[in-house]
Amino acid sequence: MLDVRKLRLLRELxxxxxxxxxxxxxxxTPSAVSQQLTALEREAGTPLLERTGRRVTLTPAAHRLVAxxxxxxxxxxxxxxxxxxDELTGHLRIGVFPTAVRTILSPALVALSTAHPRLExxxxxxxxxxxxxxxxAGTLDVALVQEYDYVPVEPDPALDTEPLLTETVYLAALxxxxxxxxxxxxxxxxxxxxxxxxxxxxxxxxxxxxPRIRHHADDFGTVLxxxxxxQGVALVPGLGALEPPPGVTLTPLRTRRRTHLxxxxxxxxxxxxxxxxxxxxASVADFR
Length: 288
Known about the structure:
Belongs to the LysR transcriptional regulatory family. Residues 2-59 form the HTH lysR-type domain. Helix 1 crosses helix 4 (60-82). The longest helix is centred in the N-terminal third of the chain and has 23 residues, at 60-82. The protein starts with a helix and ends with a helix. The protein has a 6-stranded mixed sheet, with helices on both faces. The protein has a two-stranded antiparallel sheet with strand order 1-2. A two-stranded parallel ribbon has the order 7-8. The protein folds into 3 domains: 4-84, Arc Repressor Mutant, subunit A; 90-164 and 259-287, D-Maltodextrin-Binding Protein, domain 2, CATH 3.40.190; 167-256, D-Maltodextrin-Binding Protein, domain 2. The chain is globular, with a radius of gyration of 22 Å. The protein is of the alpha/beta class. It contains 9 helices and 10 strands.
């Protein structure tokens, strides 16, 4: 019989690619992860990993097993959800990106706390690119994830998602002008590796140039302050552009940012997660 905990480790290795990354995400030591995966190979009766020095890759059999593991883990999540009583107790861990905290999340938290006072809410602010891994690892129960027109995100088979909000992306500058007129301007962008940074680079490349990025800032209030100080131009999504400083002009672009609700497959009907989904959708409706 295959051990579900070991299957989870194999699934995470398929996503994270290194044993060290799996160990860090799931609070194991690398040697413990290696030992568990070796034991899983014995249980499966076939090689699952190809080892070359310190690197490991999954065999075709391992990839097939990961596909089954996704289904097995989702069914177990669904079973646990169906065993939960109607009264909402325990804790609910929510992951959210900074610009959504005050506009979308705060009203939803008030509604959840009022309707379900015995439900303990825990909020983690994080970049959306980290949210899928945190959901799979079980450190989050619900999260807001994003994609941009120029930065599509591959579906994660471990997660279910649903549309929540679509925003316009704006060109923030000290004067009107289209994107292709800013090829000589200095630019302000988020930290490399974030979705916002990738979106800025790709949007500019689609307009025929590579942006000359002078400043990096992840808080859109800081980004707009730098624009107001004449330090460059930037692309800012709607939630980050609600209160631009005096002198900053916001020109709407065709680019859109799309926010989705995400949770582990099989957990959507869990009373706490279902309540969070309803509260967040209601908050977005009121915000609009």
